[in-house]
Amino acid sequence: MLPEVGALIQFAASALPLGETAVAAADRIPVLLSRETIPNQGTLVPGEGWQGTFLGLSPARAWGLRVGLIYLYGALCLYWIWRGYLLYRNRYRTASWTPFDDVVSRFRGHRWGQFGLLVVLAFLILAVFAPALGPTTLEQNAIDPYSYELDYYDDDTGDIETITVGAANTDTTSQGIEGRNVGPLTYDQYDRFHPFGTLPSGQDLFTQVALGARVSLFIGLLAITISGVVATSLALISAYYGGLVDLAIVLVSDATQSLPQLLVVILLSVVLSQTWLAGLYSGGVLLALIFALTGWPSLWRAVRGPALQVSERTWVDAADSYGLAPKTTMRRHILPYIVGYLMVYASMSLGGIIIGVSGLSFLGLGISSPTPEWGRLVDVGQPLLTTMSWHIAVLPGTLIVIVVTGFNALGDGVRDAIDAETDLSSEEETSAAASGAGG
After folding, report:
1. 370 preceded by cis ω (within 30°)?
2. Who contacts 215 (Cβ-Cβ below 8 Å, separation ≥6)?
3. Residue 292 burial (CB < 10 Å; 0-12/13-18/19+)?
4. Are the beta carbons of 357 and 373 closer than 8 angstroms?
5. Short-list 44, 14, 45, CA closest to 29
6. For residue 19, is pLDDT > 70?
7. By the 8 A CB rule, do 150 and 165 touch?
8. Backbone angles phi, psi at 152, to 5 degrees
9. Angstrom distances, CA of residue 24 to CA of 144, 232, 402
10. Phi, then psi, of 373 in degrees rounded to 5
């Protein structure tokens, strides 16, 4: 874990509202697999090859090597965790079998769920190691490009010249016309490699996409965590006390769900856009709170049924007869049986939140600029969709579809692994889980 622990700390510092001092301190922690260790920006000098890149490789190969090593590192870490779990289960665990073993065994045979797991893991690695995966940095790419310079070989003068990144971006725009387009997997005139091409502003698209994945992950995890805590707490209360308490929670849930969610989200985004919440993580915290506020009824309905079933079991009555406090009974004897259902519907709802955030950014109500977000990238590229600069909208839009499908597939796999006899006879229930939090 040590070679990349700095990247993990940097991710946590940037995701949490810790302030610029904490982020700057985290950025000073050395990272082995970084742009400084494997640089991909260099100068092509005729007769001498590439200068300034890692081992003299072309920028495309140097960038590809860094990306491959980062994903290999992520795969090795995940394999290390899996081997550790098997070692614990086979040698150190006192019980020879637990129900979780059957869950793991059934999931290992669920190909659709495994596909979703691979997509989700690839998305997580992209979000966590986004600064190292991009060909350039957000600071150089979008925030303050005129404060940075790059060297390039000028064919007219026959010498190496220097230009600011901002000035270079104005010459490498993608505007859908001949001579004004830098497509995927191409170099610009300043020897910079662009895996996804450039934006109409000349900024590198892959850098924005990678950092946008971090924004989507942060908002999704924060929103689903808040929704999950609220939904689980209310489900336990309604299942244990029942009667008027359960009826009151049902009424609140129905009242919340009766509101047009998209309009409520847009309304709250506009009304609260001038508050201090809008300044946290470029509006990411505010969006997470809005999606949590409007999305908890879906999760609550998903876990309320299992909680009601468990509350009628004999061991719950036995716990009450022994004088356990209601809080203790709910935590020890009801909560463990609904966590699995919560995980299933939370994974499905996470994809809906990503779609919702992208939709708001597409409408200009999401994350504030210059923080990158996938929906805003699609909005920027929409007018150029039928031109040679199609990549601006198509590539981020395709990633949104793949990631959301991956989360839904993972939810299906976890659901089938937890309960092999689960049969959601109503397609409405499934779609509500997938889109109830913003889809």
Report:
1. yes
2. 281, 282, 284, 357, 367, 371, 372, 373
3. buried
4. yes
5. 14
6. no
7. yes
8. -150, 160
9. 16, 37, 33
10. -155, 140
Contacts of 210 (CB under 8 A, 6+ apart): 126, 130, 131, 133, 134
* Element (DSSP H or E) covering residue 311: helix 284-311
**Exposed / middle / buried, residue 372 (Cβ in 10 Å: 0-12, 13-18, 19+):** buried
Give me Rg for the CA atoms of the chain: 25
What is the pLDDT at residue 280? 78
Average predicted confidence (pLDDT) for the chain = 87
Q: Is 152 helix (H, G, I), strand (E, B) or coil?
A: strand
Mind listing the pLDDT tens digit for each residue in 324-346? 888 888 888 888 888 888 888 88
Query: 228: part of which helix (H) or strand (E)?
Result: helix 205-241
Q: Look up residue 247 and give its two tokens.
A: 């009826």
78 within 8 A of 70, measured Cβ to Cβ: no
> Model pTM?
0.85
The encoded tokens of residue 395 equal: 């590539």
Note the residue count of the chain. 439
Q: Which residues are 151's β-sheet partners?
A: 162
Residue 424 phi/psi, 5-degree rounding, is -80, 100
Per residue in 261-301, pLDDT tens?
888 888 888 888 888 877 777 788 889 999 998 889 989 99
- pLDDT tens digits for 401-439? 999 999 999 989 988 888 755 443 333 444 444 444 444
Main-chain dihedrals φ then ψ at residue 159, nearest 5 degrees = -140, 170
Contact call for residues 291 and 266 (beta carbons, < 8 A): no
3-state secondary structure of 396: helix
pLDDT (tens digit per residue) in 135-186: 999 999 998 999 999 999 988 888 999 999 999 999 999 999 988 999 999 9
